[in-house]
Amino acid sequence: MEDILLEILANTRRELAARKYLVPLDTLKSAVRDVPPAQNFAAALLARPPVALIAEVKKASPSRGVLRKDFDPVAIARAYASSGAAALSVLTDEKFFQGKLQHLRNIRAASSLPILRKDFTVDPYQVWEARVHGADAVLLIAEVLPVAELQPLLDLARELGMQALLESHDREHLDAALATGARLIGVNNRNLRSFRVDLMNTERLASVVPADRVLVSESGISSAADVARLARCGVRAVLVGETLLQADDIPRKIKELLGVGD
């Protein structure tokens, strides 16, 4: 799995070129006028103290393969919404995560929760795509692009009424993420180059994040004890995918994570 990130980014750019050919940017810009305004993603998280859940919809991952054979994105999103999730994350990368932009559109039509489009965003075109398909926020990864390229993507998201979750894995990239002024700051416990996971990564970096930002811990969260541990270092939300998707009973697992009784 070493340096899978480079392979993913190369494929992202290839697929992006094909989509730009099929659907020109001007077409997206026209379509966005008919999309309802985006919801405030950060406010939705802060409305669910002490730690809000961003529940992720994805069929597969490079490290685990297919996560759920009976994968029905809309049914899964509805289960998340009815069980206490504050927001949704929808994977749209096709080759490595078996996601689709259509999943985002279908879930938007079926759920009122704020939605994060989770993908490897490298181009403004993807931000326009996200808004057209109903996303309220986009993921930006500090390891993927320098600040000089991240900032215009963040600014565009704001212009379109969205927010961006600025994700990083180490101190250097966290400093870069903070420099953009983004309110939503994610710390990924998974190293995107090796896909190894260490929950202590958030604990190591949390003290660097100012109190006026919304700190989100991503990956490797599987129990109420993990959530409590992260809450103690200032995390306001957790993004959980594999743990939920591999659960026999998704609603029960969400209640367990959030410490809510039956």
How would you sum up this structure, described in words?
- This protein is α/β, with parallel strands linked by helices and 262 residues long.
- The chain has one domain (4-258): Aldolase class I (TIM Barrel).
- The protein is 42% helix and 17% strand.
- The protein contains 12 helices and 10 strands.
- The protein has helices at residues 4-22, 25-31, 41-46, 73-82, 101-110, 124-132, 147-159, 171-179, 200-205, 224-231, 242-245, 250-258; strands at residues 52-57, 60-61, 65-66, 87-91, 115-118, 137-141, 163-168, 184-188, 214-218, 237-240.
- The strands form 2 sheets. It has an 8-stranded parallel beta barrel, surrounded by 6 helices.
- Strand 4, helix 5 and strand 5 form a beta-alpha-beta unit.
- Helix 4 packs across helix 5 and helix 6 (124-132) runs parallel beside helix 7 (147-159).
- The chain is globular and about 50 Å long.
- It starts with a helix and ends with a helix.
- The model has no long low-confidence stretch (mean pLDDT 94).
Keywords:
single chain; 262 residues; alpha/beta; eight-stranded parallel barrel; 12 helices
Give the biggest beta sheet.
Answer: 8 strands, parallel, barrel
Over the alpha carbons, how many angstroms does the gyration radius reach?
17 Å
Tertiary shape: globular
The CATH class is identified as Alpha Beta
What number of domains? 1
- Give the N-to-C terminal Cα separation: 39 Å
Low-confidence stretches: none
The count of helical stretches stands at 12
The helix/strand class is alpha/beta
Mean pLDDT across residues: 94
Give the neighbour order of strands across the main sheet. Answer: 1-4-5-6-7-8-9-10
CATH topology: TIM Barrel
Please name the CATH architecture.
Alpha-Beta Barrel
SS elements, strand count: 10
Helix fraction by DSSP (H/I, runs of at least 4): 40-55%
Give the CATH H-level superfamily.
Answer: Aldolase class I
Beta fraction of the residues? Answer: 15-25%
Helix and strand element order: HHHEEEHEHEHEHEHEHEHEHH
